[in-house]
Design goal:
The chain has 62 residues and is an alpha+beta fold. It has a domain of 27 residues. Helix content is 39%, strand content 29%. It has a 3-stranded antiparallel sheet, with helices on one face. A hairpin with a 5-residue loop joins strand 1 and strand 2. The protein is flat. The termini are far apart. The model has no long low-confidence stretch (mean pLDDT 88).
Amino acid sequence: MANAPSELMQQQDDPVWFVEERQLNGDWIAIDRADDQAEAEAKLSHAENCLPGTYRLNRSDW
């Protein structure tokens, strides 16, 4: 249990990935999220191939 607080702090520091969609007014809104880059890229690829629109990845610490 001594490591639990430090492990929790490490998890909080890890970035979250967002798949964002560009709106007609130019704003970007998050439509999905992932905990790692590989999962985020898979979700982005799915959005780009299956949905109309413009999409990008954005990390919570960028």
